[in-house]
Write a structure and sequence with these properties.
Layout (H helix, E strand, L loop, with lengths): L7 E5 L3 H12 L3 E6 L10 E3 L9 E3 L5 E4 L3 H8 L4 E2 L7 E5 L2 E4 L4 H4 L7 H6 L15 H9 L1 H6 L1 H9 L12 H8 L3 H8 L2 E6 L4 H9 L4 E3 L3 E6 L5 E5 L3 E4 L1 E5 L2 H8 L4 H8 L3 E12 L9 E4 L1 H4 L2 E6 L11 E9 L11 H11 L8 E12 L5 H10 L5 E4 L1 H4 L3 H14 L3
Parallel strand pairs: 1-2, 1-14, 2-10, 7-16, 14-20
Antiparallel strand pairs: 3-4, 5-9, 6-9, 7-8, 11-12, 12-13, 15-18, 15-19, 16-17, 17-18
Helix pairs in contact: 1-10, 1-17, 8-9, 11-12, 12-15
The structure holds flavin-adenine dinucleotide.
The site of flavin-adenine dinucleotide (FAD) has 34 residues, from helix 1, strand 2, strand 15, strand 19 and helix 17.
Length: about 425
């Protein structure tokens, strides 16, 4: 018999993981409550008001600036079911790699890939044999994965900026097994053939920003209690759980922890010490994000993207701007967001905005002074999914007593699409 039917489930954490889990359980007819410590649901996925210099309406994204959906993806299915009004941004503006002291076309494009400085001719030609790359070893980090598929030259000269800009960590410190899309591509014949078979992904923006996804999920749930932090779990007879909050306790048949590793560790401590120990070993990466508004620069109206080859960024990983017609920005102004830190040390001069602007201006000399600046610190923004991560996840799940579940970016992968895919599969596994 399905253990979730007719029983009370508590989901601790009302970020996207918790909201998605609750949404699936609720749609399957189960009784589910969400406790969220903050006053608003969404976790990182929140679109915050940021008025312009003259009080104009404007917003910034605390987490993802846009969503990436595949034609047949869990995230796409959810957006459709929620009837989210999605906008496909038009053509994008310039995308660059900052390396060898100046800008080059981004290696995320075909043109840029063949123009990465530092790659020898033979290394560029090696890119062409990617579909015939040898099979995967059992365990691999991102660097060895890409060196095997695209060659040493790519892994050495282009990969650090791509991985640093997306995952805020060096490729050799990330387990390829923690990134489900890469595994899916490999299983379907490699990056090129697998990409063709899996179909393209599109960048989409919900009306109201990416936080609108969290809001729509929360609005579809009957019981979400914000401002309610879970403090401790107590095992009761017959496999039930008592959850202690700041001002009250309540009993549940099933408890789902939809939390970062750090937050989950504290709660699991006594209930599942071995799982708590493994969870505590997953490092959280602190990201520093600066949002700034400048006068628009001609040619950048469609937005810009800059990734830096990590040794040269001195802790600055990259920057991305909104397109001029993005409803979150202030008309006429360039809205930029700049990332620093993660697994990379940030040099002392880049601890404050003037230092960040000086470093940015080296790569983007067209950029003028900022009219507005705001820092959003993102402690433990991303989990560092180190080599051996899949085995660690398996140990955590094995160490959880009946009635306790653990979900989140550290289990399913760092992107919203990975989380949506993982939680859809998790919810399906509970059926029957
Ligand atoms: C700056 C930044 C940029 C990003 N960019 C992208 C991107 O471009 N594309 C992409 O796919 N992903 C991106 N991500 C990652 C993505 O946003 C996250 O992976 C995702 O939002 C994580 O959701 P979550 O629910 O697992 O965790 P969280 O968002 O951390 O939610 C956990 C929730 O649990 C609550 N909580 C904690 N402890 C307790 C407790 N004891 N009791 C009750 N509640 C508790 C917290 O308040 C929080 O709301 C980005 C993240 C950041 C920070």
């Amino acid at each position: 018999m399905n253990p979730f039917n007719h029983k009370q489930t508590l989901i601790i954490g009302g970020g996207l993981s918790g909201l998605l889990a609750a949404w699936h359980l609720h749609r399957a007819g189960r009784r589910v409550t969400v406790w969220e410590a903050a006053e608003t649901p969404g976790g990182w996925a929140q679109t915050l008001a940021w008025p312009g210099p003259n009080g104009e309406s404007g917003w910034l994204e605390r987490g993802p600036q846009a969503l990436r959906l595949g034609d047949d993806s869990a995230l796409g299915r959810i957006c459709t079911a929620l009837d989210l009004d999605l906008r496909r941004p038009g053509p994008r503006g310039p995308r660059w790699l900052g390396k060898a002291g100046r800008r080059h076309p981004s290696p995320a494009t075909l043109d840029g890939l063949f123009r990465v400085p530092g790659m020898r001719l033979a290394e560029k030609l090696r890119l062409l044999v990617e579909p015939f790359a040898p099979g995967a070893p059992v365990e691999e980090n991102l660097r060895t994965f890409f060196a095997r598929r695209l060659g040493e030259g790519f892994a050495r000269e282009a990969l650090p900026a791509l991985v640093g800009g997306l995952l805020a960590a060096p490729p050799e410190r990330m387990d390829v097994g923690a990134l489900p899309r890469l595994q899916g591509l490999e299983a379907r014949g490699g990056l090129v053939c697998g990409g063709l078979r899996m179909g393209p992904e599109h960048t989409c923006l919900p009306r109201g920003g990416t936080g609108a996804l969290a809001q729509a999920l929360a609005a579809s749930l009957p019981a979400i209690e914000c401002g309610r932090r879970a403090l401790a779990l107590e095992a009761l007879p017959e496999g039930r759980w008592r959850v202690h909050g700041e001002d009250r306790s309540a009993d549940f048949d099933t408890v789902v922890l939809a939390l970062s590793p750090a937050a989950g560790t504290g709660l699991l401590g006594e209930a599942a010490p071995q799982a708590a120990h493994e969870l505590a070993a997953i490092p959280g990466l602190d990201l520093r994000v600066w949002h700034s508004r400048h006068r628009m620069v001609p040619g950048w109206e469609r937005g810009l993207g800059l990734l830096l080859h990590p040794p040269e960024g001195r802790g600055l990983l990259g920057a991305v701007s909104l397109a001029a017609d993005d409803p979150r920005g202030v008309p006429g102004l360039l809205q930029l967001r700049t990332y620093l830190g993660g697994a990379y040390p940030v040099e002392a001069e880049l601890e404050t905005w003037p230092g960040v602007l000086a470093e940015l201006s080296h790569w983007l000399p067209e950029l003028g002074e900022a009219l507005q600046v705001r820092e959003e610190a993102c402690p433990s923004a991303f989990p560092l999914l180190e080599p051996g991560h899949r085995a660690r996840v398996a140990h955590i799940n094995e160490g959880l007593p009946p009635g306790l579940h653990w979900l989140g970016a550290a289990r399913f992968g760092p992107g919203v699409g990975d989380i949506a895919e993982g939680i859809e599969a998790w919810a399906r596994s509970l059926q029957g």
